[in-house]
Design brief:
Length: 82
């Protein structure tokens, strides 16, 4: 099983991995099913060329998911402090 996120952009960014890892985390928490890999499929805005980035290492996917959650927590705190 994989979670796939499709992007149309001019580049593949680290944030893309964090986001799809968060989807993985949410899916696993909701269903109890295990996701084996996360995949970002990027379509280049200018050329339409396709780039695929796949991660199937559990420790790495967990780290990406935690990073997303920490960033979200920080964002919410900053917004709350305004």
């Amino acid at each position: 099983r994989a979670i796939i996120d499709y992007k149309v952009s001019s580049g593949l960014y680290p944030e893309n991995r964090y986001q799809v890892a968060a989807y993985r985390r949410a899916y696993e928490e909701e269903t109890g099913d295990t996701i084996d890999s996360i995949i970002v499929v990027r379509f280049d805005k200018a050329t339409g060329e396709v780039e695929v980035d796949e991660t199937n290492d559990t420790r790495t996917m967990n780290r990406y998911g935690r990073t997303f959650c920490h960033a979200l927590k920080l964002y919410k705190q900053v917004e709350n402090d305004k």
